[in-house]
Specification:
Length: 132
């Protein structure tokens, strides 16, 4: 049963501005803004790609969409860094619901899973998250 839904749109250029000219193979070279929002795994995956800003913009959209879907169902803060978006072997994105803080929030919200879809077009990345 659906418990919540969230959607978000992120301008890829805004993320690119935070990346600057950085070429990073690990999260230690990333800006504080990046390490505050993204897990080390997300940063490693992003910087292994040709277009890290596009990749991270999609992940940021997922984080905001997840907060919109789950945040109203819990007491207290919903931290964007709790939401780690990975790729299944099929290539589909999924949220790692085993991060302890996120799992606790999902349990409080009576949510078993977060279904996610990401789309990039032109200057924007969009994501939708269904909490069920």
């Amino acid at each position: 049963m659906a418990r919540g839904i969230g959607i978000d749109l992120v301008r890829i250029g805004d993320v690119a501005d935070h990346l600057g000219n950085a070429v990073c193979t690990c999260n230690t070279a990333a800006s504080p803004w990046l390490t505050h929002l993204f897990t080390s795994t997300e940063l490693e995956l992003a910087f292994a790609r040709q277009q890290p800003a596009e990749f991270l913009a999609g992940r940021l959209a997922v984080k905001h969409a997840a907060r919109k879907a789950v945040g109203p169902l819990i007491n207290g803060e919903f931290n964007l860094r709790w939401v780690e978006t990975l790729r299944a072997t099929s290539g589909a994105p999924y949220v790692n619901v085993e991060i302890p803080a996120l799992r606790k929030a999902l349990d409080e919200a009576h949510v078993d899973e977060l279904l996610v879809s990401i789309s990039n077009d032109g200057d924007y990345a969009a994501a939708i998250v269904l909490a069920q």
